[in-house]
Design goal:
Strand content: 15-25%
Number of domains: 1
Mean pLDDT: 88
Distance between the termini: 18 Å
Length: 277
């Protein structure tokens, strides 16, 4: 049974998955005494640059995971030597292998993410980890990597670790996938396609509608014509999106539209508007 939890946030580019993932992590840290980690899969960290340490919860840590660093950590644990792992990764043959072996960097990222319950690799001493992951297309590749490698390497350390990683990312008590979206047609279509693709590899997922506007309580008749048309279009678009999304029977969470400009202020507002179970 998993005691740690990990949350992956994905979505079409521009839907706000980064601020949503940060808002979720901050909300969880605020409402509990658990150790929480917020991380992003990137070479540079927008969180470290924009979140003010003196204002966020003290039990919330921030980091970013570089694919190469994760690969180096993975190789170090596989070879039992940091020196050997550096020699291996800097070898021209190894670099060529990495370039022609799609999914190896993705496997190393998930190896780090699941190191706690697998008791293998760098220890992740956090109760919950919130990951601002890749956009939809690359995210699917990320989640397919362990199964692909376990089929390529049916025995040996690589095969054993790939099977273990695949097992844990598909464990619903441990791994949670959140698909962040808006209600425009392209975002809805892409999100549903990812949801179905993940179901095809035995992974569940849920939807988070970001920038949702509560139009049910608007008295349209009292609005000026142009304002009325504006909100009516939003109302219709959201209803159309919900009609399609509800057919998937996936859980749906709503993040209200935040009228803030600064990255930090948006995240803080989101963190106060939700409660993470």
């Amino acid at each position: 049974m998993a005691t740690q939890k990990i949350h992956f946030f994905t979505g079409k580019g521009g839907v706000g998955k980064s601020v949503v993932s940060a808002g979720y992590a901050w909300s969880k840290a605020r409402q509990s005494k658990q150790n929480i980690l917020l991380t992003e899969l990137s070479d540079d960290s927008s969180f470290e640059d924009n979140l003010k340490p003196q204002k966020i919860a003290k039990n919330l840590s921030i980091s970013h995971w570089n694919a190469y660093i994760c690969l180096e950590e993975y190789a170090t644990n596989l070879l039992r030597s940091k020196t050997l792992s550096k020699l291996f990764l800097n070898n021209s043959i190894s670099k060529a292998l990495i370039n022609v072996a799609p999914g190896l960097e993705e496997l190393s990222i998930l190896g780090k993410a699941t190191s706690g319950p697998r008791d293998h690799g760098p220890q992740m001493n956090y109760d919950e980890i919130f990951i601002d992951a890749f956009a939809t297309g690359h995210f699917l590749t990320l989640m397919q990597a362990p199964e692909a490698f376990s089929e390529m390497f049916s025995f040996g350390p690589m095969g054993t670790q790939s099977k273990s990683i695949d097992k844990w990312i598909k464990n619903p008590e441990f791994s949670h996938v959140h698909i962040v979206m808006n209600t425009d047609e392209l975002s809805v279509r892409e999100s549903i396609e990812l949801h179905k693709s993940l179901a095809g590899i035995d992974m569940g997922s849920r939807f988070i509608i970001n920038k949702f506007v509560d139009t049910e309580n608007i008295q349209f008749k009292k609005l000026p014509e142009r304002t009325k048309d504006f909100f009516q279009n939003i109302h219709d678009q959201q209803n159309d999106a919900l009609a399609v999304l509800k057919k998937t029977k996936a859980d749906i969470t709503y993040i209200p539209q935040v009228f803030e400009n600064h990255f930090f202020d948006v995240i803080e507002s989101i963190s106060k508007s939700i409660k993470v179970p």
